[in-house]
Design a protein that fits this description.
By secondary structure, the chain is of the alpha+beta class. The chain contains four helices and ten strands, in the order ααββαβαβββββββ. The protein has a four-stranded antiparallel sheet. Strands 4-5-6 form a three-stranded antiparallel sheet.
């Protein structure tokens, strides 16, 4: 029955869309952005198909000391095993090529704009795409995850990745999405490479990532122009 409700709303918005009606005089602003437009149609279509909308991913409590919750999937994904989208650090849109020449915050002579900590800001792709309390993890969040959880390489729905299990027994799966440089993704399925929202304090051309291979797990800094995946978090 709920799917029929969403289908009815979808058709109604489709009919009224050319008018671009203001929400205060109409009742079909289903995503509460103040307008009745294509984003409402996308929202409803996802509901009909049973696909999560941005910000609707499950927030998983791993029993961490801070009370931080981790999303069940990456930005751009709808299930744990999907790689999702790749973003250069501090950018909020995907692109065809990831190099310093295409980097939005490149300011010349191989220097990048100093953005500081971007968690929860306009440069935080998790916050921009998902809204609400969602944000990119910080360096401290990655350290807490690694230090308080067990993690093992495993296969989930035919995708290789790493499962982190928290002190309370709950777990998250990070698919081994590797990274993009230029237009190439090297050794997909062998590396986990996830951006934090923390800029390196030593080299601000770099930012902090969680990097996992079969032989090491480390929280390190790397060049900001690379495309990497993002796993959002929510504060307690």
């Amino acid at each position: 029955m709920r799917s029929f409700k969403y289908l009815f709303l979808f058709i109604t918005i489709l009919i009224s869309l050319p008018m671009n009606m203001r929400a205060q005089s109409y009742h079909y602003d289903v995503n509460n952005d103040g307008l009745v437009n294509m984003t409402d149609m996308t929202f409803l279509l996802n509901k009909i198909l049973g696909v999560p909308n941005p910000g609707e991913a499950e927030a998983i409590d791993l029993g961490l000391p801070s009370g931080l919750k981790w999303a069940a999937c990456n930005v751009g994904a709808t299930s744990p095993e999907e790689y999702g989208d790749y973003f250069a650090w501090g950018e909020t849109e995907v692109k065809e090529s990831y190099t310093w020449e295409t980097y939005q915050h490149y300011v010349g002579t191989t220097t990048y704009r100093n953005l500081g900590n971007i968690c929860g800001t306009q440069y935080d792709v998790a916050h921009v795409k998902w809204g609400g309390k969602w944000r990119m993890p910080s360096q401290a969040d990655f350290n807490e995850l690694v230090n308080n959880c067990t993690h093992v390489w495993t296969t989930y729905n035919n995708i290789r990745g790493v499962q982190f299990t928290g002190p309370n027994g709950n777990s998250i799966f990070l698919p081994a999405a590797s990274y993009i440089y230029d237009q190439s993704i090297p050794q997909l399925g062998k590396y986990c490479s996830y951006w934090s929202g923390t800029q390196s304090s030593s080299y601000y051309n770099h930012a902090i990532e969680l990097y996992i291979t079969s032989y090491e797990t480390t929280v390190r800094y790397y060049s900001r122009d690379y495309g990497r995946t993002v796993r959002p978090v929510q504060d307690k």
